[in-house]
Amino acid sequence: MIREPLIFEISGKGKRAFSLPELDVPSKKDLLRNLPVRDEIEGFPQVSEVEIVRHFTRLSQTNHCIDVGFYPLGSCTMKYNPKINEKIASLLEFNSSHPAAPLDLVQGNLEVLKTTEELLAELTGMDAFSLQPSAGAQGELVGMMLIRAYLGERGNPRKIVLIPDSAHGTNPSSAHLCGYRVQEIRSNKKGTIDLKSLAQNMTEEVAALMITNPNTLGVFEADIKKMAEIVHSKGGFVYMDGANMNALIGVCRPGDMDVDVIHLNLHKTFSTPHGGGGPGSGPVGAKRMLKPYLPLPIIERKEGKYFLNFDQPKSIGKVHSFYGNFLVIVKALAYILSLGYEGLKEVAEIAVLNSNYVRKSLEREYYLKYKTPTLHECVFSDKFQRENGVGNIDIAKRLIDFGLHPPTMSFPLIVRGALMTEPTETESKRDLDLFIDAMKQISKEAKENPEVVRSAPHTSYVRRLDETTAARDPVLRWKEKKKIK
Ligand SMILES: *Cc1c(COP(=O)(O)O)cnc(C)c1O
């Protein structure tokens, strides 16, 4: 593959992507005389239209994306996002309305928000939702803040949050950021939270249990109601990390499992493209007890008109400008309404089926530390391949040569050399088979020709990078660096 030059390197003086006819009226350029307007910006690239199009099209092809191929990045739910969502979100009435517009002019937008809140509450069995948090991690922090506000108001915010050792890294970070000390609970042999261990750790100093269900191994925490009973009996709260709702949506509801507060990742379960650092949305749902503490403003309806209620003295306050990442919410609503209840249920069913097909097809080639049945994802490891000096990083890099995105690596932390695989519901059997065949071939290569795997990728835009240097000292100005040398 040829290295794509920087647009500055393609630039040539006088090249333009447009042409206008000769001016046939008197020039009024001197009207701008006293304004800070420049004729030319020094060093600004000058290119023709076709050069711009080719440059950015070629750049767009150097990265993998869901529109190009399979993307089984576990825990991230990289499903294909139907284009109808984009179409709806790009309607002028949505994307051009100003967030500070008078409420009379944006009643439709407020209805979109309120309807989404109500549908999410219905789908999760919670009493109320706030759509403000920008991502899952911020949703976790907001959830913790609700609990802290509730307990604090009653005299003691408590000190500890219990989190299983399989949790996503954002869980302990959010609890810590909210002023809590994190106490880890060890998973048992099944990969789930041990009830005995929970009971031992649950004291009146514990504010909450943060649980992910299904957990990051893809295992459903079947004892969740018993756990909630243990936590509630000591006056604590159950927080559920809902990032894995793709496994449950339309089938069962966390609210019915006695969860008190939950966040969802609209950019995962509810289908907004993510992974490029674009806007996300991590709504938080709460049971009645925690509702008065939700972020401001609350959208309400009176006499057929929506308005924003800022008069909630117990609220934790604002956590986002205006009302969250509006267009992500529009996409989520489009997704929910286009699939309907039955369609959403099918999402979960097929996601689980696809994952189990992959798991069953590869269980001989790749070690599964936990034999417990799994839902929407499964966590293989590199244990068999390590015998030949091939690690999960090598397997991941080799997959790039097959035009596939690697699974999530080295997470959850309780599986050494983890390859966490989440195919999602949007993949056909053909696409799953392409992945399975590639994984089988890599396992074969690891035995017969391990060097091919260890030196991968061979066909990508750049070859194997030094991970640390690539992250800490990226070469952004190729030419200059070369000159220095
Ligand atoms: C993705 C994820 C998060 C964090 O969500 P962001 O939107 O990336 O902040 C938290 N927990 C789990 C289990 C996740 O998969």
Description:
The chain is globular. It folds into two domains: 83-338, 3-Layer(aba) Sandwich (Aspartate Aminotransferase, domain 2); 341-470, Aspartate Aminotransferase, domain 1 (Alpha-Beta Complex). The chain contains 16 helices and 13 strands. Helix 7 (170-177) links the parallel strand 2 (160-164) and strand 3. Mean pLDDT is 94; it is low at 481-485. The strands form three sheets. It has a seven-stranded mixed sheet with strand order 1-7-6-5-4-2-3, sandwiched between helices. Strands 10-11-13-12 form a four-stranded antiparallel sheet, with helices on one face. With 485 residues, the protein is α/β, with parallel strands linked by helices. Bound molecules: pyridoxal-5'-phosphate. Pyridoxal-5'-phosphate is lined by residues 75, 135-137, 168, 170, 212, 216, 241, 243-244, 265, 280, 282. Pyridoxal-5'-phosphate binds at residues 75, 135-137, 168, 170, 212, 216, 241, 243-244, 265, 280, 282. Its cofactor is pyridoxal 5'-phosphate. InterPro entries: GcvPB, GDC-P_C, GDC-P_N, GDC_P, PyrdxlP-dep_Trfase, PyrdxlP-dep_Trfase_major, PyrdxlP-dep_Trfase_small. Keywords: Oxidoreductase, Pyridoxal phosphate. It comes from marine sediment metagenome. GO terms for molecular function: glycine binding; glycine dehydrogenase (decarboxylating) activity; pyridoxal phosphate binding.
